[in-house]
Amino acid sequence: LNSDDAVVVFSPARTYRNAQNELRYVFTTTEVSVDKNNHELNFCGACATFTRVYIFKKNASSQFELISQSQDENSWMNADFNYLPYPTSDIVKNIRKVGPQIKAYVEEQEFSRQGYSSTTLYIVPFDEKPYIKKLIVAEIGNDNEVSGSEQIYNTQGDYQFLSTVHDGLYDIEIAYTGTQRIYIADRAKIIPINETHVYHYNEKQQKYIRVK
């Protein structure tokens, strides 16, 4: 966003404890589109917001020291109607253990447009490396229930972390139920879905890979 038509919103720092029970501080800054003529925030589906995430610790001198920060702006953006997609309170609330020695922010990001909705599962390891990486796992829900279509579908995915580990992160199992839309000879058809997928993390490829 151009600095002339955006403001930066600071979300207050919140604390959490890492997997080693050490105190950490996380806060975010979000660039929000503004209407210069009316001097107000733009609340519209086409107005994206961009967030940066920072994690600090207190060093031996009781000074705040930056440990990690987000690198890729595009993975921390929201073009939906939520003008502040990453308040720190929501991040801290959804931090959980995702591996034997690591915690992460677990996000279910929803997106809706023109009657179609989808939800995607992301894992953001707080591994205290210089840059925070946001990892996409899979879509865990989609529907067209308010699209006005005569053929309505609704797929729901319930995920859980397994006890098995690959490259430091627990494997993830997603059980899909509901209905899905498929195309047969270019014609849409709604059918039940009852599938279970399993994903392993691959450090070399820096992503989760479906193995089942």
Q: How would you describe this structure to a colleague?
A:
The protein has 212 residues and is mainly β. 3% of the residues lie in helices and 62% in strands. 18% of the residues are buried. The model has no long low-confidence stretch (mean pLDDT 88).
Summarize the structure.
The chain is built from 1 helix and 16 strands. The chain has 212 residues and is mostly beta strands.
Q: Mind sketching the topology for me?
A:
Elements: E1 6-17, E2 23-35, E3 40-41, E4 49-58, E5 64-70, E6 77-78, H1 88-93, E7 95-99, E8 102-113, E9 116-125, E10 131-132, E11 135-143, E12 154-166, E13 169-184, E14 187-192, E15 195-202, E16 207-210
Parallel strand pairs: 5-10
Antiparallel strand pairs: 1-2, 2-3, 2-4, 4-5, 4-6, 7-8, 8-9, 9-11, 11-12, 12-13, 13-14, 13-15, 15-16
Structural class: mainly beta
Radius of gyration: 20 Å
Number of strands: 16
- Largest sheet, described in full? 9 strands, antiparallel
Number of helices: 1
Low-confidence spans: none
Give, in order, the helices and strands: EEEEEEHEEEEEEEEEE
Strand percent estimate = over 45%
Proportion in helices:
under 10%
Q: First CA to last CA: what distance?
A: 40 Å
Based on Cα principal axes, name the global outline. Answer: flat
Averaged pLDDT, please?
Answer: 88
Keywords:
mainly beta, nine-stranded antiparallel β-sheet, seven-stranded mixed β-sheet, 3% helix
